[in-house]
Amino acid sequence: MPNQINEIIVRQLSDEFARAEGMVIVSLNGLTVEETENLRNSLAEHGVRLRMVRNRLAKLALEKRGLVVSDTLFHGSVACAWGSSEDAIRVAKVVAKAAKSADPKKTSKLAFQGGFFEGNLLDARSAAALAELPGKNELRAMLLCLLSGPARSLATLIAAPGSSLARVVQARADTGEAVTADAVPA
User: Fold this and answer.
1) What's the burial of 10, exposed, middle or buried (CB within 10 Å: 0-12/13-18/19+)?
2) Using an 8 Å Cβ cutoff, are 89 and 83 in contact?
3) Cα–Cα–Cα angle for 40, 42, 25, nearest 5°?
4) Three-state SS sequence of 91-125
5) CA pair distance 42, 7, nearest whole angstrom
6) Nearest-CA neighbor of 70 among 149, 124, 7?
7) Are strands 22-29 and 109-117 parallel, antiparallel or unpaired?
8) For the segment 72-131, what is each residue's pLDDT rounded down to a tens digit?
9) 69/82 Cα distance (integer angstroms)
10) Could you give the C-alpha distances from 145 to 132, 138, 154, in angstroms and in order?
């Protein structure tokens, strides 16, 4: 008979996983407590919790959600962070930054194991690719540039004849020549 506590944990995880739009699973093999706490703190700054879960319980919770995961996804010391799609992207960015800043001489193995994003299972490479996606604010800035670009070009074209006339008049005034009505180009 399964342990009552394990059943409660699986039920809680499956409820939280059902509400989640994305999850990133990372391997924490070889990390010190200080490095793990630094990772947790940097994720907490973005409003996301990194949670160590027992591999078997997390796999059962994902299966209750309807996702069939391989045994390689939950292998070794892993932690999960889940939430909205935006949270999953933030987690991937923070983990990728932490993995790049790790000392290359150490054998710490902070790495992506996989996850899911908007209902699709991700392998390690796909989870790492989430770090390359732009965030919501970056997408808004890109969209704003795309929308304002043509308007800016139109305003420049409309202002060009007036500004060139003003430059000609200023050049003549600087040289001391008198500007007459017939001397101004049409």
Assistant:
1) buried
2) no
3) 50
4) HHHHHHHHHHHCCCCCCCEEEEEEEEECCEEECHH
5) 31
6) 124
7) antiparallel
8) 888 888 888 888 888 888 888 888 888 887 666 665 578 888 888 887 888 888 888 888
9) 16
10) 20, 11, 14
